[in-house]
Amino acid sequence: MGHIEGQIYLASPYTAAASALTGENLWVNVDVLMTNDITGPGAIGVFKREFGENAKVRDREKVVVIPITTFSQLMNAANRNVDTLRDFKREQNIKYFYVTLRTSETSRLIQITKASATLLAQEGHCRPGEVLVGTDSHTCTAGAFGQFASGIGNTEVPPTIRFVLDGEIPSYILAKDLILQVIGEISVAGATYKTMEFVGTAVEGLTMEERMTLCNMVIEAGGKNGVIPADKTTYDYLKEKTTVPYEPVYSDEQARFLAEYHFDISKLEPLVAKPHSPGNRALARECKDVKIDRVYIGSCTGGKTEDFMAAAKVFLASGKKVKVPTFLVPATQKVWMDLYTIPVPESGGKTCSQIFEDAGCDTPASPSCGACMGGPRDTHARLNEPQVCVSTTNRNFPGRMGHKEGQIYLASPYTAAASALTGHVTDPREFLQ
């Protein structure tokens, strides 16, 4: 590591971070490394090129491999990507490989059933005080657990911006509204290579899935990672997910912040991000004249069980049918199953799937990240024409969901469902109050 008389102190990641100053370089032992079928083959290629064809990973139990995207049976490239992951899993004896489904006759890929950011949490890989890196920009979702989680990059310690969200959260506001408010305030470059820390009474009142939504979109503000201090809500969620010991870490009284923003959430109204930027914030009620062609509820940002429960609540309250095609794409197979098995509160025992059917929505599709990448023309809910879509996804750049001239309005599940019922961008308070 340099001079023969130099002194090296080995330490845990958080001991190292605590000993460093902002901007200094660190080497840390990462606790979890995640890759998927989109970025994994390239990473595996670099691994073998740099370390040799017979190189072995140092700890097979730290690596998590997650195929994430649904493509057609004719997508040979997609099949090859998954085959590369399977070969690597066998070569390295990787413990955590979340399998795909194939046809018995052709052995071709027909379904990949996970959004990696959500599945990491469901399978107990998100733990307070640990370091998680992945070849997916939305790996930052795991910051909801008090974990340093980031897409793979270099090894600097980013300075921290603190966001204090206080006040009672109105019944018509979801975490998607909170993060759209934050990004609209600081812009899509406002937290470039910064840590975004979320605290305050409003944050403390969020469920784990809502906290995941908040941290998921820090990358849309340029952030390196997002983090929410672990608390009882975190610990209760993890009881059913993992038995691996962990040690929470918190900002102390001497912590230095690059900037601090304060928001009174009790005054917040439902928001959207207009095309073509997640930072193009507007009140939903200000966009009521925007006619839409479809609604998409899904992705790692808006395809969790609670997201669909929220949408079902709006459909149930209205008693009406949707006026535009409404696509439902769960983040994982577990979420898909929840839609058919968990009763929606105050519904008389109806499940989300029953409520969606009554409202005239499309049948819930196989779990996927497909529409978030434009994808091939047959990817579920892809914009093949220059249409207008209200979506619970995380990005609305040109071509993000297909056609470059398509217009995407990012919104919460409440706002997405309300818009589906009217055929234009709609404030959900029309149905929730």
From TrEMBL:
Q: Which residues form the Aconitase/3-isopropylmalate dehydratase large subunit alpha/beta/alpha domain?
A: 30-282, 286-423
Question: Cross-referenced InterPro entries, in alphabetical order?
Answer: Acnase/IPM_dHydase_lsu_aba_1/3, Acoase/IPM_deHydtase_lsu_aba, Aconitase_4Fe-4S_dom, IPM_dehydratase_rel_enz, IPMI_cat
Check the record and name the SUPFAM superfamilies matching this protein.
Aconitase iron-sulfur domain
Tell me where on the tree of life, at the top rank, the source sits.
Eukaryota
- Provide this UniProt record's keywords sorted from A to Z: 4Fe-4S, Iron, Iron-sulfur, Lyase, Metal-binding
Q: Does the keyword Transferase apply?
A: no
UniProt cross-references to PANTHER family, sorted A to Z: 3-ISOPROPYLMALATE DEHYDRATASE, HOMOACONITASE, MITOCHONDRIAL-RELATED
Q: What is this protein called?
A: 3-isopropylmalate dehydratase large subunit, chloroplastic
Species assigned in the record:
Datura stramonium
Originating gene: IIL1_1
